[in-house]
Amino acid sequence: MNRITVETLLQDLASRGLNGEKISEQQIKVFASKDNFVNHLHYLQTIGFEHLANINGVDYIAENEFEVVYQVYSYEHKIHIVFKVRIPREKPVILTVVTLWEQAQFYEQEVHEFYGIYFEGNKDLSHLFLENWNDLPPLRKDFNTEEFSEKLFGSKRHGGGK
Amino acid sequence: MNFNSYSLTKIAKEDKDTTYDLFFGPNHPGMHGNFGYVLDMVGTEINSVRPNAGQLHRGFEKLMEQRGWVQNLTLVPRICVMDPDPNEVAYCMSVERIMGVEIPERAKYLRTITLEMSRLTAYLLAIGGFGGTLGHYTPTHWSTADRDLIMDMFEWLTGGRVYHIYNIPGGVRSDAPEGFFDKLLEVMDALEARLPDYDSILFENPIVHKRLKGLGYVSKEDARKTGLSGPNLRASGNAYDVRKDVPYAAYPYLDFEIITQEGGDALTRALQIRLEYEQTINLIRQAVKKIPEGDVRLNLGLLGNLKVQAGEAYEKVESSKGEFGYYIVSDGGTKPYRVSVRGPSLPAGFLWAQKHLPTMKIDDVAAWMGSLSICPPDFDK
Amino acid sequence: MFNINSLEQQDNQDKLWDKVINYFRKRSLWMLHYCTGCGAMELPPVMTSRWDMERFGIGPMATPRQADILLITGYSSVRTMKRIIRTYEQMPEPKWVLAFGSCTVNGGMYWDSYNVINNLGEYIPVDITIAGCMPRPEAILDSMLKLMDMIQAGEAKAFRKYKENYAYYKANQDRLFMERGPVLESAALRYVHEETEGGEA
Amino acid sequence: MMTVFNIILYSLFAILVGLIFLGIGRKVAARVHLRYGPPFYQSIIDVIKLMSRESITHNFVMDLGMVMALTGLIGTMLYIPIAGHIAFESNTNIIVIMYLMAIGHLGMAMAVSASGNPYANIGVSRALTMMLGYEVPFFTVMLGLIIYNQSSSVMVINLAQAGSIWNWNIWQMPIGFIAAEMALQAMMGEKPFDAMIAPAEIASGPMVELSGRYLGLGFLTKAVGVFVETALIVNFFFGGGTSVITFVIKQLEVFLIAVIFDNIFPRYKIEQAVKFLWIFPMGLAVIQLILLAI
User: Whole-structure pTM over 0.80, yes or no?
Assistant: First the structure.
């Protein structure tokens, strides 16, 4: 397979209907819609982007949207893709990619736990880290960690001084 | 002589009542860190495994959104206590990428030196870990004492023994003190002179070979697909190293080859650490030799009020466990909008645990875990 | 809250025998091999060749039944806290607790974290707290020596405090571990997903 | 009356010497690790401390088992001559020793199974498996000794080696000695044959649930065990001793060799250990037996 550069990759993805932007010589970001992003990820996997480094969420509360970010890297082309999918905050449901990468199981569990995003098709979305948790998923912007800590653990700003 | 073929446990496997749950960790001497596996056992054989994580969860990613850009530097090294500097460097690199600044050459070399020193401490601990999990405490005692030589150098350079917070956005905090590099080279000589001892007591020990050979095999393709990284990936025959592929700091100026091996089992991973240990000493020597004069940090104004323009970046660093990545989103304020950390241990700690452990007996769990250099805090965060 | 008087009365009763046995207790301190947090990183240097705590008869032990000291090495998350309490209650008396680092006093740098308890002393009694993040090996060793002095003088009696004020500790522990409703009102915003038909992609 | 007094004296002596051996062993191990290590009397302090602690028992069987383990080994010790002194005179005491030595492990197994902890159960099953592993080669070597001396009395074997250093059995049957040394390493539970303790695997195995006095009894059992096992080797291969002092010094040497080996090897898995013991020491023991027969 020929070595793909950032520019040719961006052109290729644009022809498939994906908008992208260059971040650096070895890194681009791509915006995909929630309807067909799995196909795009599958395509990327077939052209050599086989390393899924991480899946993480971002809470854009001002725009009332969640973003799920897939960090994908290719060992051959040495390009990193920040693959972004936006979903509405009221109904945070997205398709799973466990079929493409096995380790996605645990990343999705983590994102579900911290953002409350549901991954359709993922069989096990149980909590990995938190126990006895009945509050908002903690990494959402409308969850106030300081207030939570103050109420449950009795924490004080500046250690209670001043 | 195959004990398995006629063991009672084989018969018992069909009987539902003979299985029991065994808590391997968190309170277990063989466990690396505060983490655990709940093993579903038949006799001494493992049926299935459930990772029991969350004991180390501190909500780093949330806390980083509450604190200023530079304040966060106190948090990031605590994500991996054995090898803290890659976290600082990856965080700083991401911030610098968003700000679009290039750090001075001397700072790049100083970063490289701290990164490699940190890698050495982690490898020395890993050598001790191999000893400890196999019940061989002599190398553990030796290597932990040898690690202290580097800890003292760190203390001299940065003021901290374990957490250094030496790298800051825009370079490093201060220049190296006078005489530091000469002493560092002496320490490197001392550490290299110890290698034959480790070889004879650990890496060439016939019983170590017997215990580790064939344990936890990962094939070349599986290692690439499941997100393993670092020494684990290279021990399976993949020539991938962030230092070479996505060069950062002063690595483009240094002369080194990616070390790969074909074995893919625990023994190969142990030898991989031993080989890379030698390479790291060599890299530090090169960096010390080539380090240019000049500034060690950019003037970014008052760091306490640092503002980073809106943007995002994912930067990765090769740590002793594998690829550490920091994905940072900035909205132009005095605090990050989102910091997401990619720890290298998750694929090994969760996915490969579920693949490997059910083929093992209880004897091998600790050694297997040590061989994949699983560091729980980096996925527990 | 703590009934100091009754402790002192109890102390006066068996003083001579305690003095003899305290010598042996202080010279043979076994600590539990449980790293609850990152402070455990400075334990290997203390245990191994450089600082060699076995000189003083201090050594790691595998299970709570065998151990005298419980080291809380740094912050403890809610899940760890549960395991710490289980461990502590399994240990036979006399037992001592050493708390490492600032995180065990007021949460340290994790003071506003949603998963880290702030003051360890509210949940189990602590004999000695070592300041710093993380405490240096010298500080750890020094605290051990201090604990030895306290044991010899009969001052290290925190485990009795736990028995006498069990209701206080239990109430604090229950606050964390009992089935509880949401802590913040914002929890009402939670989205609960109902599986749609044909959910498989 | 005299016998009772003798028994108490012998047991106290064995316990004391065993504990000091363990302390010296820790000190030597520490030197291999490049550190100072505890004082040589550390094990005695440990045991006294353990005896003074709160002890958690699970049931009567656990109490009984721990006592049985200790008394089993003390009983063995009474049949072993120490520099010509012996508590119970017997013409066939090798057979008795062979039987009694197993009681220590069985008592431990009883006590530990009673606690119900799975780690403890795995540990004890490993200990019993290991016993299968080392007893076969060790008793084969003993058989060689019995054939060579035409007697199954330790005292007779002991006296046959008197006179000069060159009369010692270590020169008469060196191959058997090596086999016995390997078996001894397993018998004392030193690495590479310490799979039954294995802290990193099964959290110290049989000792998981033992606290206070029970752990103290466990330590005493270990101490007497070390005494008995080294005493056997000294009697069989090093000609016993002219006085108690030389006997104990010889015992210490045998013990320290084991400690040094303990510190340069990691541990075998249990099946690897048994395999090793049934191939190498067993092979050597059989070769020795054949050589003696010719």
Answer: yes
C4 reaches B (C-beta below 8 A):
no
| A151 vs C contacts (CB less than 8 Å) | 183-184
For the segment B37-80, what is each residue's pLDDT rounded down to a tens digit? 888 888 778 888 888 888 888 888 888 888 888 888 888 888 88
For residue A145, CA distances in Å to A109, A139, A149, B64, B338 come to 21, 9, 6, 11, 15
pLDDT at site B121 = 92
Q: How many CB atoms lie within 10 A of CB D204?
A: 24
Alpha-carbon distance B266 to B239, whole Å?
Answer: 18
CATH (residue range B69-335): 1.10.645.10
Is C135 inside a domain boundary?
Answer: yes
Number of compact structural domains in chain D: 1
Domain ranges of chain A: 6-160
Residue D151, token pair as written in the block: 């007697």
Q: What is the ipTM of this complex?
A: 0.88
Boundaries of domain holding C110: 4-189
3-class SS at C194?
A: coil
Q: Kindly determine whether residue B138 and residue D122, on different chains, have CB atoms separated by under 8 Å.
A: no
**Cβ-Cβ contacts under 8 Å for D290 (sequence gap 6 or more):** none
| Partner-chain contact C65 D49, CB within 8 Å | no
A101 closest CB neighbour out of B225, B314, B342: B225
A6-160 is classed CATH 3.30.460.80: yes
Report how far residue C20's alpha carbon sits from residue C25's, in angstroms, rounded to the nearest whole number: 9
In a domain, C201, yes or no: no
- The answer to the question of residue C66 being in a domain is yes
Q: Mutating which of A71, A81, A148, A153 best tests the B interface, going by the most B Cβ atoms within 10 A? A: A71
* Interchain contact D118–C (C-beta under 8 A): no
CB-based contact D122 B44, cutoff 8 Å: yes
pLDDT tens column, B147-187: 999 999 999 998 888 888 888 888 888 888 888 999 999 99
B316 touches chain A (CB under 8 A): yes
Domain count, chain C: 1
* B78 interaction partners in chain C (CB closer than 8 Å): 38, 109
**Within a domain: C173:** yes
Mean pLDDT score, C121-126: 88
Could you report the per-residue pLDDT of B317-352, keeping only the tens digit for each?
988 888 888 999 988 888 899 899 988 888 888 888
